[in-house]
Amino acid sequence: MMEATSNLDIVLTLLHGLAVTLQLAAVVLVFGTAGGVVLGVASAYGGAPVRLFVGALLYLARGLPLLIQVFAIFYLLPLFGPTLDRFSTAAVALGAFAAMTISEIVRGGLVAIPKGQIEAAYSLGLKRLMTIRLIILPQALRVLLAPLIGQFVFLVKATSIISLLGVPELMFSAREIIERDLEGFKVMTLVWLIYTAVCMPLSMLGRHLERRLAIR
Amino acid sequence: MAYRLDWLPVLQASQALLSGLAISLEIFLISSIGATLLGLGGASLMLSRHASLRFVATGYVELMRNSPSLVKMYFIYFGFPVLGLFPTAFWSGVIALVLHNAAYMMDIFRAAFASVARGQREAAISLGLDPFLTYRKVLLPQALRRALPGLGNYWAEMVKDTSLTSALSVREFYFVFTSQIALNMRTYEFFLVAGLTYLLLTSAVAAIARLWERALARGEARAR
């Protein structure tokens, strides 16, 4: 007879999974935002070819289930790129998806600024960096900050998909306990609360920003 | 490394793929209709005059959208047996997708109804329409048109989310696709077929939402 896992063991196992989820989320958000800013700036100011290229990638990122995208990276990356462990592969897959979706948010924020303002700034003698810092960023951030935070929440939740590819994050740990001890109700209630505790402050921040930064 | 495309395994698997596709479509249709109707009902709660109803509705939205839909699928499938309920994998997936996505639909409908001009309701009532007719003939069509862009996005999301039910071993399209790859290793061929199928489905759903929105906009323009 196998001994049933105690409540403490369940909580500890889940917290262990949560640590992996948070690490993965942190890597994905940081690299996704960095990549998204680069791609977003490129497609806002880079001309038609860049915009078409990024647009095509975005169409795939949005039109295909994330599960199939992640599965494709898990399969293709070892064939064409370096062989990484599961966590890093997951980070690459979700990070690429994050960069694509965030690039569209960044692009939206940038194209919302009338071109005349940038020309006006130049004609007033402002240097490129000053124009970005004083004219573009303050206005673009106003438009893109709330959707960006919303996308962060989506991405944190999306890390749960990685459990299906064997990365031992929160959902994976939950399923492990359930398959061993059949404590489905207890375990999933805890997992539900844990995700909510992580995501709710973030979504509340997003809505707060949305209200505060709304252009009236 | 030469890889020769070989479509025979895909043809041989076409029966399995099609039955997977049928299950995916079934999951999508039931869950998207369910989520939309629940979202519509929930939006009325969010706009209710009673603070307690608004509180319940907002609480529901927070409870749903701060965790992955996968959590709800597992909660129903692995958790309900404690309560003496044994939902199948299919229905666990469907119910989870309905409950999860309804929260987003509620928010979309709430904003849409809030944006319909106040005078519309007052005018309808002063013309002698009862509250049901006012809702059905005046408020709903206008709100629906405003909600459709958002709804279309989430319907497309829900097409993709059907693949998550594979986590409960529902034999839908994604499940069949991965098991076929494991079976005969014709990875690229199956990736192409599966990828194009999903792209086609999500694009079609988005297009239907756009056409519907345009039709309602025409109706509204005629009424002016």
Helix % of chain A is: over 70%
Tally of DSSP helical segments of chain B: 9
Q: Let me know the average pLDDT of chain B.
A: 93
CATH fold-level name of chain A: MetI-like fold
Verbal overview:
The complex is a heterodimer of chains A (216) and B (224). Chain A has helices spanning 7-45, 48-63, 66-80, 86-111, 115-123, 128-158, 170-181, 184-213. The mean pLDDT of chain A is 92. Chain A has eight helices and no strands. Chain A has one domain (16-213): MetI-like (MetI-like fold). By secondary structure, chain B is mainly α. Chain B has a single domain, classed as MetI-like fold (Orthogonal Bundle). Chain B has helices spanning 8-12, 14-46, 51-65, 69-79, 89-115, 118-126, 131-161, 173-184, 187-223. In chain B, helix 2 (14-46) runs antiparallel to helix 3, helix 2 runs antiparallel to helix 7 and helix 8 packs antiparallel against helix 9 (187-223). The model of chain B has no long low-confidence stretch (mean pLDDT 93).
In short, what is this structure?
The complex is a heterodimer of chains A (216) and B (224). Chain A is 82% helix and 0% strand.
Provide keyphrases for this structure.
heterodimer, A: 216 residues, mainly alpha, MetI-like fold, B: 224 residues, flat
List the helices and strands and how they pair.
The complex is a heterodimer of chains A (216) and B (224).
Chain A: H1 7-45, H2 48-63, H3 66-80, H4 86-111, H5 115-123, H6 128-158, H7 170-181, H8 184-213
Helix pairs in contact in A: 1-2, 1-4, 1-7, 1-8, 2-4, 3-4, 4-6, 5-6, 6-8, 7-8
Chain B: H1 8-12, H2 14-46, H3 51-65, H4 69-79, H5 89-115, H6 118-126, H7 131-161, H8 173-184, H9 187-223
